Amino acid sequence: MAQPVIIGVTGPSTGIPWAWWATRSQLRRAGARAVRLHAGIDFKEFGVAGLVIGGGNDIDPAVYGGDVSDDRSVDPERDAYELSVLEFADDEDIPVLGICRGSQLINVHRGGNLIGDISGIRVHTSNRATLLPRKKVRIVEDSVLSKLIGSTEARVNSLHHQAVNASGCDLRVVACDWDDIVQGIESTAGPWRVGVQWHPEYMPQRRDQRRLFSGFVDVCRG
Fold first, then answer.
1. Are strands 193-196 and 96-99 parallel, antiparallel or unpaired?
2. Side-chain half-sphere of 188: how many Cα atoms within 13 Å?
3. pTM as predicted
4. Nearest CA to 82 among 116, 55, 112, 62?
5. Most Cβ neighbours (<10 Å): which of 95, 136, 205, 208?
6. Beta strand 114-115 with 163-164: parallel, antiparallel or unpaired?
């Protein structure tokens, strides 16, 4: 019997690892073995075939030229670690799925920037954080993301107050909500990259979100 593909999952090094547990469960269901990665762990030793950059703290605005006067909860050590993970993934042509902060970091790594606080530009969508799939997003029809989840629309949850602004090199926006706030990005050249602004790991009851993980695992299998 073939060994399961190994996928590294990044996250914070402190706190209760809810997102890690949820992501590990989704990847296991899709037939992969997840390994937990955070600052201080040598990510090169596991022989990963894929990487998930998980959610969490805001990215330090200093990394992408944002407003450093904003009083935000940041983790510079994690920023540096995950940027080095992305460099490694580029060098080794390893597929990467970015979740929430992870999607933003993929964009920042490629030279893009972020909107520091989206609360003032919401009109049709709520600023209230929720794990429930209460937000609708539109997905570009010919995108990798639409093929992964099997639709050009999805109901998703929302835990973010930042979002992609200018997209980075070789990335395109492929999903937006009803306020045209970016909800999904993907690579147009180079290594496989997909980022979603929502948290699919917390929606195992939804088939389209399970498909996102299973499709990603298939890509990692090659």
1. parallel
2. 11
3. 0.96
4. 55
5. 95
6. antiparallel
In DSSP notation, the chain reads: -PPPEEEEEE--SSS--HHHHHHHHHHHHTTEEEEEE-TTS-GGGG--SEEEE---SBPPGGGTT--TTS---B-HHHHHHHHHHHHHHHHHT--EEEETHHHHHHHHHTT--EES--GGG-SSS----EEEEEEEEEE-TTSHHHHHHTSSEEEEEE--S-EE-S--TTEEEEEEETT--EEEEEESSSS-EEEESS-GGG-TT-HHHHHHHHHHHHHHH-
Residues identified as active-site = 100, 199, 201
| Chain segment 18-44, per-residue pLDDT in tens | 999 999 999 999 999 999 999 999 999
Q: Is 25:210 a contact under the CB 8 Å cutoff?
A: no
- 124 vs 218: which has the higher pLDDT: 218
Residue 98 neighbours by CB under 8 Å, 6+ apart:
52, 53, 104, 105, 106, 185, 193, 194, 195, 196
Which of 205, 35, 23, 43 lies closest to 101 in space, CA to CA?
A: 23
The structure tokens 């999952």 sit at 9
Q: Over the stretch 43-60, which tens digit does the pLDDT of each residue have?
A: 999 999 999 999 999 999
d(CA 52, CA 38): 12
Is 50 in contact with 216 (CB distance < 8 Å)?
yes
